[in-house]
Amino acid sequence: MNHWQRELVATIIFVITYVLISGRQLKILPLNRPAAALLGAVLMVSTGVVTPERAYRAVNYDTIVLLLAMMLIAAYLYLAHFFEWAADAVLQFAHTPARLLFYVALTSGILSALLVNDTICVMLTPLLIAVIRRGKLPMLPYLIALATSANIGSVATLVGNPQNMIAQFSRALAPAAILGLGLNFMLLWIGFRKTLGEAVMVREARSSSGLDRNLFILVSVVFILIFAGFVAGLNLAWTALAGAAVVMVLARRDTHEVLKVVDWHLLLFFAALFIVVDGLSDTGLPDAIYGHLKLLFGSTVSTQSWNLAWFSVAGSNVFSNVPFVLVAGKWMARFNDPELMWKVLALSTTFAGNLIIVGSVANMIVIESARRHLEVSFWDYARLGIPITILTTASGVILLLVLR
Known about the structure:
This protein is mostly helical. The chain is built from 21 helices and no strands.
């Protein structure tokens, strides 16, 4: 097929895949999100948009390996009864549903600045689910708080997310992250004020299964070593997998039980989704769109900043933020203030992750990890994700313009 036919087919497959992923299961096509992503990947290859070799290269194996490693470590925390033990402690400390929402948002934001936001979501989601179920609380407010705060907090440091590492990270983004976390909590509290006001936090007696302290200490020491290795510049994915292997050797537990806890559906979901996104990006559509719209960016620094921000929010949700940053990075030299534009690009593509469910890997980790307990629809998330993205992005751009 010629180029425009390939572009059209890729776009149609991409849209179908994202519609299936974003909504609830359809009666005519009862596919869950991993199955929908797999369908999209197969269509990309079978129609000739992507070759099998290109499909293999499209998968970001660092992400898959990192997720697998953190799932294995989380599995050992589960076997150590850590989540039940921690859930009791959190409920005793939080006192009210609203205060718990604040702690979730704050903890997620801070930890995501210290370690990649996707990793934090893998580790915190099982704990959060345990807390919510133990306290008999509504699940949706806390899941959204975890995901949105992880996205916002990750903009504060170089190690927070991959696009920071690409987009010439600046410490000027840390104040924007702090402001964004405050605005995020405010919008979450307003949006779920009635739900949280009606909720009653239940504090049950501690479970009979106490914490396995030896296993918990082993996992904690390994996790600290993984973090130290990352700070030292080692490859995070393989450092984490090495740590998981050490725990497997030293824990002396049946590894069949451990591997059963790993969410293989989530790993399949991301592998397939990488192929779908790459199929669209490889058509050259992002460059073509910029070629048609570059005159709309304006001529002043302020106008270019605002237009790049909104264009980046849209582009990140269509092409995914990391591929979009790789393409948009080629444009920076054409702007009046390239240094400022790099900051705007890093901020807007990170905050863009909060727009819809498929806006970021962190969102999908949280939502998919909780699918056994709550099915979150496109609108369940977007009704708060859209205003959160608009308000935090706008305030962030204003702050960057003021501080430049």
